[in-house]
Amino acid sequence: MDFTQQKAAARKLAFTRRKEAFANAGPGQSAHLSEVLAGYRGVPLAGYMPIRTEISPLAAMAEASAHGPVGVPVIQGEAMPLEFSRWEPDCALREGPFGAQVPVEDNYFDPEIVIVPLVAFDIKGGRLGYGGGFYDRTLERLRSRRATLAIGLAFDAQEADHLPLEDTDQPLDMMITDTRIIEF
Description:
Its cofactor is Mg(2+). Its EC number is 6.3.3.2. InterPro entries: FTHF_cligase, FTHF_cligase-like_sf, NagB/RpiA_transferase-like. Pfam families: 5-FTHF_cyc-lig. Keywords: ATP-binding, Magnesium, Metal-binding, Nucleotide-binding. With about 180 residues, this protein is of the alpha/beta class. It has one domain (about 5-184): 3-Layer(aba) Sandwich (Rossmann fold), CATH 3.40.50. Helices cover about 25% and strands about 20% of the residues. It has four helices and twelve strands, in the order ααβαββββββββαβββ. Helix 2 packs parallel to helix 3 (about 60-65).
């Protein structure tokens, strides 16, 4: 099995585990995210608008927006880094690429904290995404400008023993699951 096939197989398994965890999840899935972000009040951060079976960061994003800028990713094009547009609870949204909601009005800024969605993670801070490389390119760009904290958000069930990772894959600094906070 070549590397591309290994990644595809890992994603398929991870999507199945995430779907099951999502179906069994109750309220308060991202309570630990709120707890962590409370220590960074006012620091510009980016979350994401959940799609499919992603764990939702929206409650923590809403809390954080009372203290400083919060953004959501906006895809600029294939093989390009993401830009983050300012988001507030109840702001007007439109459908962006891949069905994720984005603000109607673009107001871009660079976050210092990025909450990263994922398909799978490992205990070393590795992350398997959807395969477009958007977050890897974005984190590389942001980190070249200043320290940027990358926080993965997922269900415990998305943890993998081994992930097929490449040199271009940007590591996470912290992982928050529905039950744990893991610092790398």
